[in-house]
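In this section we walk through a basic example: taking a raw amino acid sequence and producing a predicted 3D structure, encoded as discrete structure tokens. The instruction is simple. Fold the sequence below.
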Amino acid sequence: MNSFLFGKKIAVLCGGPSSEREVSLRSGSAVANALRSLGAEAFEIDVLDDNLHLPAGTDLAFNALHGTFGEDGTIQSILDEKGVPYTGEGEVSSRLAFDKIESKRRFVECGVPTAPYVTLQNGEIPDLPLPYVVKVPCQGSSVGVYMVKSIAERDAALQQAFAQANTILAEAFIAGRELTVGILGETALPIIEIRPRGGFYSYENKYTWTNRGGAAEHECPALLSRWEKKRVESVALAAHRSLRLEIYSRVDLILDANREPQVLEVNTIPGMTETSLLPEAAAAADISMSHLCECIVRLSLERRLASKR
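The resulting token sequence is shown next.
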């Protein structure tokens, strides 16, 4: 296959110190294999801390680090300081999108539909009707998310969340269809509907090798009316733009009882594993895994060249 990546030396950053380490290692392996199929010299680097060493002659870093350190602006800042081009968003946009409280504020400011929410300091109780969802603001992949359906569940959920952060988020629970939309540049990929077999789309339901019988069924493309499809795509793109994102992301939404999409969050380093949603959506648009990685690299390099002009 002819590719502008042929012969390029690409460091695939994966693993990392976050709770999503295992997923990141799998994403890194899948990305490295895809890049090698394009003729690139791709090698995986398990990034354990900020003491990052890249081999001489590295042309590019492909960021496959999920969660804290990889999505929150930390690795982006390190790579900027080293002058190494990398995939995905820059430090500022990454930090904004990763923080569930700050991104919620941006959604509201930009008119992106999202569930009502409150922020809480340690010891405070949400002034929201049950059920609601308690979230740790700076975690990824549904880590640090607790469903509260009754008063009996409230204290344990708050205790677990406050053990991870001094300020947390509680948002109204919205029943409906769980959807996710991959964004590549300015293009919305086919919409996926997620049907968890138990509970909500938790970390365990996302990554089947971590669970004990959970998992989720995916339907891609989701069965939506033409109006629903257009509305969901429009809201997903609005969420992506509201966080000043330009490269790629995956927007998670709920289609509520009024057929109105409500944005939950935006992931700037979505999974690239064999069960991940972004590659699945790309495949439904006839974009292979290797082509998806190539597009991500191209968009990333174009944005960085444009920012230097």
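Looking at the output, two observations stand out. The two ends are 31 Å apart (CA to CA). Residues 289-308 form the longest helix (20 residues). In the next section we compare this with other chains.
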